[in-house]
């Protein structure tokens, strides 16, 4: 087990966990909400519902005629390959950056699964207030957002510290 904890495999397992949770929650949402009413979690703010997104984030290019399925799929495959290699090349002592990348990877592959299998992404989490509605999203979208936020935080607040600690450990 200690070898697993120092291997990039642990980050790929985190990405796999995101994929499994994402797909399981999408299956649940389809069964529960596709033909039924939405479930109010926090009335006036949060509900579970069902939506199909044929585009990218915020339904970008949703009405493009079908080519976007393959375009976004190709982008996800290339991006995921880059992230897999990025994680593999990180020092074993790093934690924050590979966690962020694993979340992004799992989210990208979870949505890629839907896009390639169905031609659209299944969304079910709806945040709203009055007449304002945030675009409906899913677990994969949350993982991507949290991972991206983690990378931004690292870049803004910890990048110099990470480089300094990497240089110090390399000198020892």
From TrEMBL:
Enzyme class: hydrolase
TM ranges: 70-87, 99-116, 136-158
Superkingdom field: Bacteria
Enzyme Commission no: 3.4.23.36
Subcellular location: Cell membrane
Pathway noted in the entry: Protein modification; lipoprotein biosynthesis (signal peptide cleavage)
One Gene Ontology molecular-function label: aspartic-type endopeptidase activity
Keywords: Aspartyl protease, Cell membrane, Hydrolase, Lipoprotein, Membrane, Protease, Transmembrane, Transmembrane helix
Presence of keyword Transmembrane: yes
PANTHER family, A to Z: LIPOPROTEIN SIGNAL PEPTIDASE (PTHR33695:SF1)
Family as reported in the entry's similarity comment: Belongs to the peptidase A8 family.
Role according to the record: This protein specifically catalyzes the removal of signal peptides from prolipoproteins.
The protein, known as: Lipoprotein signal peptidase
Source organism (scientific name): Microbulbifer harenosus
Lineage: Bacteria, Pseudomonadati, Pseudomonadota, Gammaproteobacteria, Cellvibrionales
Chain's gene name: lspA
């Amino acid at each position: 087990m200690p070898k697993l904890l120092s291997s990039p495999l642990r980050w790929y397992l985190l990405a796999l966990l995101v994929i499994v949770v994402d797909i399981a929650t999408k299956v649940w949402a389809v069964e529960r909400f596709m033909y039924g009413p939405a479930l109010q979690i926090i009335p006036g703010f949060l509900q579970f519902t069902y939506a199909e997104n044929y585009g990218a984030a915020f339904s970008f290019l949703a009405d493009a005629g079908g080519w976007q399925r393959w375009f976004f799929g190709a982008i996800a495959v290339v991006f995921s390959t880059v992230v897999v290699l990025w994680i593999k090349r990180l020092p074993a002592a790093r934690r924050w950056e590979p966690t962020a990348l694993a979340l992004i990877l799992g989210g990208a592959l979870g949505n890629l699964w839907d896009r390639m299998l169905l031609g659209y992404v299944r969304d079910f989490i709806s945040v709203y207030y009055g007449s304002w509605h945030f675009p409906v999203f899913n677990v994969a979208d949350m993982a991507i957002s949290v991972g991206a936020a983690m990378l931004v935080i690292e870049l803004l607040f910890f990048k110099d510290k990470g480089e300094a600690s990497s240089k110090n450990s390399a000198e020892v």
